[in-house]
Automatic annotation (TrEMBL):
Residue ranges occupied by any Cytochrome c domain in the UniProt entry: 42-190
GO MF annotations, alphabetized: ATP binding; electron transfer activity; heme binding; metal ion binding
Native source species: Hujiaoplasma nucleasis
Keyword presence, Heme: yes
Pfam families: DnaI_N, IstB_IS21
Protein name: Primosomal protein DnaI
CDD domains: AAA
Keywords annotated in UniProt: Heme, Iron, Metal-binding
Keyword Electron transport: no
Alphabetical GO biological process terms: DNA replication
The encoding gene: dnaI
C-alpha cells in the first residue's frame, strides 16, 4: 500500500485525483461516508489526505490481533471519519482490544486525538503558576463532588502555553474515576450550535451541555462573536450549571477581566451589562489561574 506522503507529498508528479476518488469509492467505509454526507468532488479532493490516512489506519486496525500488536500512534484507539461544519476529520475511539474504558466517559467535541494522550504525570511543572494549577487539580481529584462541591478552573495564557493539555490531563483522570465529561473546543462548538438553529436539535445540544457531570470549554473567547450564543446559549448553560453545582472548566487566551471586552459587540451600557453577566457567572464557577511560563520542549 502506498503511504500518504508518497501520494500527496510528491511534488514532481501530478496527483491523479480521479484515481484517488475511485479508490475511495471502492473502499466500503469511505464510500458509505461519502454517500451518507453527499460529498462533492471538490470536498473529496480537498480532504484526500484525510481519506488516505483513514484508510491506512483503518486497515492497520483490521489486521491487528491484540493491543500489544497495535501499530498506530494512538495505541488502543481506532479511527473513524466525522463531518462537522463542512469539515472532514478523523476522530478516535477505543478499539475492540482496549480494556481501559475510561475514554468512553469523555465526549470529545472537535478536539484532536492528543486529548487521549494527555497525562497528569507528564505535566510540566516549570513556574509557580503550573505548580498551583497542579495542586488544585490533585485537590479536585481527591474531592468527593457529591459531598462537597468544588469550583472548576479558568486557565488563561498565551497560545502554546499548554492550557488544553492541562485540562485534557485532568479530564482523563476524572474519566478514570467514572465521571461523565464533555470536552469541547469552544469555537467549533459555537459554529455547530449556530448551524443547529432551525434544525430542531439546538435545544437538545444545549440540554446536554447543561446536565453533563463535568464540562470543559477550551478556548473561550476564540470564537466568532454572536450575541445570541452569548446570551441565550452560553448564558443559559452557565446559569443552569451554576445553580446545579456542576463543575465547569475553561481555557482562554484572555484573563477573565479581559474576556469581557471580547464577548461584547460594542461599548454601550446594554452590551457591557450583558457581557458582565457572563463574566460574573464564570467567576462564581471557577478559580482563575494564569499560565505565565511556556512549557519546556522535550
Amino acid at each position: 500500500m502506498k503511504k500518504v506522503d508518497e501520494l500527496l507529498n510528491n511534488f514532481n508528479a501530478k496527483i491523479d485525483y480521479d484515481g484517488l476518488i475511485d479508490r475511495f469509492m471502492n473502499e466500503p467505509t469511505t464510500k458509505k461516508f461519502i454517500l451518507d454526507h453527499d460529498l462533492t468532488r471538490d470536498q473529496i479532493i480537498k480532504s484526500a489526505h484525510i481519506f488516505l490516512t483513514y484508510i491506512e489506519e483503518y486497515k492497520t486496525c483490521n489486521d491487528c490481533h491484540s493491543l500489544e500488536d497495535c501499530k498506530l500512534q494512538t495505541k488502543g484507539f481506532t479511527p473513524h471519519l466525522t463531518y462537522h461544519n463542512n469539515r472532514i476529520q478523523i476522530e478516535y475511539e477505543n478499539c475492540r482490544y482496549n480494556q481501559n474504558r475510561s475514554a468512553n466517559n469523555i465526549s470529545a467535541m472537535y478536539i484532536p486525538k492528543r486529548i487521549f494522550e494527555a497525562s497528569l504525570e507528564d505535566m510540566d511543572l516549570i513556574g509557580e503558576s503550573r505548580k498551583l494549577i497542579h495542586a488544585y487539580m490533585h485537590k479536585f481529584l481527591k474531592n468527593d463532588l457529591k459531598e462537597n462541591f468544588m469550583k472548576g478552573m479558568y486557565i488563561s495564557g498565551k497560545y502554546g502555553s499548554g492550557k488544553t493539555y492541562v485540562l485534557a490531563a485532568l479530564a482523563n483522570e476524572l474519566a478514570k474515576q467514572g465521571k461523565k465529561i464533555i470536552f469541547a473546543y469552544y469555537p467549533d462548538l459555537v459554529r455547530e450550535l449556530k448551524s443547529s438553529i432551525g434544525n430542531g436539535d439546538l435545544e437538545e445540544k444545549i440540554r446536554q451541555l447543561k446536565v453533563i457531570e463535568i464540562l470543559f470549554l477550551d478556548d473561550i473567547g476564540g470564537e466568532y462573536f454572536s450575541k445570541f450564543i452569548r446570551d441565550e446559549v452560553l448564558g443559559s448553560i452557565l446559569q443552569h450549571r451554576l445553580l446545579d453545582n456542576k463543575p465547569t472548566f475553561f481555557s482562554s487566551n484572555f484573563p477573565i477581566q479581559e474576556l469581557v471586552n471580547v464577548i461584547k459587540e460594542s461599548n454601550t451600557q446594554q452590551e457591557t451589562v450583558s457581557a458582565f453577566r457572563i463574566i460574573q457567572r464564570i467567576k462564581r464557577m471557577t478559580e482563575e489561574f494564569i499560565l505565565k511560563d511556556m512549557p519546556r520542549i522535550s
